[in-house]
Amino acid sequence: MASALAKSAIILxxxxxxxxxxxxxxxxxxxxxxxxxIVLFAEMMKFLFSAAMTYSMRHRKGVVIKFEVNRFLxxxxxxxxxxxxxxxxxxxxxxxxxxxxxxxxNFRLVxxxxxxxxxxxxxxxxxxxxxxxxxxxxxxxxxxxPCAGSSSSPASATESSFFVVHPLGLLFGLLVPACSAxxxxxxxxxxxxxxxxxxxxxxxxxxxxxxGIVCNAALAVxxxxxxxxxxxxxxxxxxxxxxxxxxxxxxxxxxxxxxxNIRKNFTTVFALFGSTFVTSLATWTRPSTPFLIGACVVxxxxxxxxxxxxxxxxxxxxxxxxxxxxxxx
Length: 329
Description:
This protein has helices at residues 2-28, 32-56, 69-74, 76-92, 98-105, 108-120, 126-144, 155-163, 167-191, 201-222, 232-258, 261-282, 289-322, and strands at 147-148, 286-287. By secondary structure, the chain is mainly α. The protein has a two-stranded antiparallel sheet. Helix 1 packs across helix 12 (261-282). The chain crosses the membrane at residues 5-24, 36-57, 69-88, 100-119, 126-144, 164-187, 208-227, 239-259, 266-285, 291-308.
């Protein structure tokens, strides 16, 4: 029960932090140099936190912290894919408006289980697939016109922008969820490798974030960010956003380690709904009927997915008990 409560707490905390991060990002807007500096600060914060946690666990019984060159280099793969995703995301914003970008980004709901089947051999039953597809169409419905009475983003404008998209915008917009899903699934595969079951998550994150610092530091140097530092006031604002981003990254890694990438995607979707609710309250606009229906559909889909997963795990455990593996004579 404690484990279930801990997992629920991780999901709730992650959702709340993503909502706050989205609101701050929308309010302050970011240039390429801002993004590079914020992400670099976030990677450094995650690295320091993981290093401190790894150091504190070094003598704990049952914990194995061992440096292996081959395994260390393996962590560079998902880190580089995450780095590519961040930069492709910046390019996508040059060709896509916010609603269209969000619509294309939700394809990760469908891409992730397909990649999980290929890389993790994780079979997903029909009921869970129905829940995933229901969530996808629920998000699609809600994003077409999130706020009623809003002249800045009417449904007709959003629909027209979605169906008339620059080819590069469509390419970048689909690459973002594809990179996100691929990096997440590879990270999950490395984290849950049975050969390293006693390896603590913070030691795994420490190796992952090392490559994140190297990649983003190189980008910051290339853009001249470090040679032209921002003012103290701007630096404090960027530090706050970086702290939120780092906290989200750590909670996301916990979600991947102890749940899976599909549940992580549901967390992101609920955060987007929460952000829209906060925006509607701040601008004195009410959420549209399609948005509310979409939110209800996604909520039901989340419950259905969780129940189906619990039943599949129960059936798998029961089958293993009835047919235990035979040991060789």
